[in-house]
Amino acid sequence: MNAAPADQIRLLDLQDLDVRLAQLAHKRASLPEHAEIESLTKDLTQLRDLLVAATTEESDCAREQTKAEQDVDQVRQRAARDQKRLDSGAVSSPKDLENLQKEIASLAKRQGDLEDVVLEVMERRESAQERVAELTERVGSVQSKIDDATGRRDAATSEFDSEAANITKERALVAGSIPADLLALYDKVRAKQGGVGAAKLHQRRCEGCRLELDITEVNDIKAASPDKVVRCENCSRILVRTSESGL
Fold first, then answer.
1. 40 falls within a domain
2. Stated pTM of the model
3. Mind listing the pLDDT tens digit for each residue in 10-20?
4. Domains in the chain: how many in total?
5. Which of 49, 92, 131, 182 is the most exposed place for a label (fewest CB within 10 A)?
6. Is Glycoprotein included in the keywords of this UniProt record (predicted)?
């Protein structure tokens, strides 16, 4: 391929812009806020799972407490009815009186046992409520940290994106001034060689792979027409000759 020396030199300008874009992309992706947000989000997910579990437990305890209190109330009402019958004198048979008294005593014990259950459930519910309150506060705290880190990340990425947009516009202008076939070759090589498609030949050294050319390659480049597009035998990048090439 042949291309005017000025067009080949413009490849170096294009390469510099592409390097700057790659550096900006790397900085953008490497912002510490990304890892911070990821870590905090994992913590938030775990806390929310724990909060759901605690809320469910509190809800279950509430239903259990309501059921236990209803059982106590039913026993209390039945005992009250039996006591009323006993006090009214309507039961005259000694055996019936004995049975009624035994039932009242049994209901009293049953009521005591059920009240103990109510107390135990109330304690568990109170513990669950405290856990819900604690986890709710922790969720809010972590969410605030995420919001803060997100704000810092967005501010930083906005700056990078703005700078990248300006460089992209400049790149389009430079790329538009380079012949299509030369530009296509540059882009093809750049895609294969880690983002570097063209490199300066400086003091007989390829600035792309940092290797010095052997004497045969140097002589071939010396003998080549200034319009000839030469490539590095080591890395295949386009070698751009300048006054500093040492030829």
1. yes
2. 0.73
3. 999 999 999 99
4. 2
5. 92
6. no
